[in-house]
Amino acid sequence: MDTIYLREADRLEVTVLIDNYTDIFMSQNKDVDKRLSPSKPILAEHGLSCIIKVYSGSEEYLILMDTGMSSKCFFNNISALNIDINKIDSVILSHGHFDHIGGIVEFFDQVSREIPLILHPEAFLERRLNNPSVGPSEVPILNENDLKNTGAKIIKSKGPYTLASGLIGLTGEVERTTIFEQGFPWAEAKINGEWIVDPFKDDQAIIIKLKDKGLVIISGCAHAGIINTINYSKKITQTENVLAVLGGFHLTGPLFKQIISPSIEEMKKINPDYVVPMHCTGWDAINQFKEEMPDNVIINTVGTTYIFE
Length: 309
Prior knowledge:
Blueprint: E1 8-9, E2 11-18, E3 32-34, E4 49-56, E5 59-65, H1 71-80, E6 90-92, H2 98-101, H3 104-110, E7 116-119, E8 127-131, E9 135-138, H4 144-150, E10 153-156, E11 161-163, E12 168-170, E13 187-191, E14 194-197, E15 205-210, E16 214-219, H5 226-237, E17 242-248, H6 260-270, E18 274-278, H7 283-292, E19 304-308
């Protein structure tokens, strides 16, 4: 069995750089901070990107996860939130879908030093969406040569991986064990020259282990299933307690309505202190999570920082 050893972090800050929703008047609590100014408007789009700061003693690491769907939204929000991209230590790609890679080539064009990019090798697959009622449609893909031309230091990993001196882990390929999380049949990838239902082997999540609190798990879209992702994170870190789950749960659209309820029931059993559904979770599922787990669920908005310490 693949396992990873994670050092315990003293403090973690997760800033949502891009998400589908923005609301400058969203209520907050002691663990949530919003630093939005009408003079620097922040944008929302169908995409996801997060800035992750992890601390241990005098150590501090700044990680970028994903870059949303468009470079326009990405760089607008970088500016609005006063983020210095040259202080970013590493970039993590949750998977190779268009709504997570939009600003990545331009980001690496603009940084002034070599920064590692950690991804699964299948993040570079050619992909499309194939809705049976309208037929296949192409989507933007990640071009490896374009990235190499920027000078990005590409690190390909299929299995669990650690960075930030062992304070941050990646799941790598997520083990699929739940009955109801069966993937996205309209998403296709070209593998060995043939279009097939995308297996999303490149789908991975970030894991941080907070001292005396447990795991914080950050998913991109959780195409492997958010419950599968949590269970696998617990398994490879050999840690039972989950403090927080943030990110996209991919429960939006007609294909996923039937698995919203079982996903919520399984999340109740896991019982994280904080559940922050974003992006492709979808508005219906987000509201059902809030109704079923009112004390755990936080409704997210772009520009929010979640503070765990």
